[in-house]
Amino acid sequence: MKKLPLIVYLSALLFLAACNKQDYFRDTGLQSGVFKENIYEFLQGRPFLFDSLVQVIDRAGMKDVLQHETVTFFAPPDRSLMLLMNAVNGNRYAQGKDSLRISDIPGDIWRKYLARYIFKGRYMMNDISRIDFARAALYPGQNIESYDGYIMNMGVVYGAYSGTQDVGPRTIWLSAVGDNLTDLAKALTEQVATSNLQPKNGVMHALAGISFFAYGSDFESVVNDNVP
């Protein structure tokens, strides 16, 4: 029997491999990060992640900002608010006070802290400076005024891959700096889970929900002093 050339066998194997791959692989294209909704509508349309945040926005009187102004919003998920409210109510329980809901806390208090997550203008990941918390003098990120003037720091961490520094995934971090402009080690930080979302009136970066809303700063004491 006449032997077939080796290249014929290889071609047949490649064909079979391609067929097998198609059995479980389906190319669905690239996910677009551009949306027709404004930021507020984007959040409102995803209640499983942001329904409590939408309540805070309404209570703070910042709905119009997130509907019509060009801003960058680092959106805290509901988990951040859950952690905060659990801490607030745990503190009140220890004092013999009734627990609170989001609607029980004055809007100006919500405004004070929510505004720290909002920045005028558009900041995509490529617009944000590098930060390295271990080498902050070399890579300090960028200090920037949030919507009502509180100083925050935004920076991009360059991750490692297979032991090689700076070539892995890049992640945005947002830190509450305030008056402490030089010591990032003391700043309270939060990691972005999804970056570069583009609703029609700006940019949104969805936070991971690791930290309390308001970074667990003085929110509890402010509520305690103002809500009986």
Brief summary of the model shown:
The protein is an alpha+beta fold.
CATH class: Mainly Beta
The main sheet orders its strands as 2-1-7-6-5-4-3
Q: What is the count of structural domains? A: 1
- Broad shape: globular
User: What fraction, in percent, of the residue positions are helical?
Assistant: 25-40%
- Low-confidence regions: 1-30
- At CATH level 3, the topology is FAS1 domain
Q: Please count the helical segments.
A: 7
Q: Whole-Å distance between the termini?
A: 96 Å
**Rg for CA atoms:** 24 Å
Multimerization state: single chain
Report the β-strand fraction as a percent range: 15-25%
Major sheet size, sense and barrel closure: 7 strands, mixed
Second rung of CATH, namely the architecture: Roll
Task: Compute the number of strand runs.
Answer: 7
**What is the name of the CATH superfamily?**
FAS1 domain
Protein name: FAS1 domain-containing protein
InterPro entries: FAS1_dom_sf
Signal peptide: 1-17
Keywords: Signal
Report on this structure.
The protein has 228 residues and is an alpha+beta fold. The protein has one domain (39-226): Roll (FAS1 domain), CATH 2.30.180. It has helices spanning 6-24, 39-44, 47-60, 63-68, 78-94, 107-114, 219-226; strands at 71-75, 118-120, 142-145, 151-158, 170-176, 188-197, 202-207. Residues 1-30 have low confidence and may be disordered. This is FAS1 domain-containing protein. Keywords: Signal.
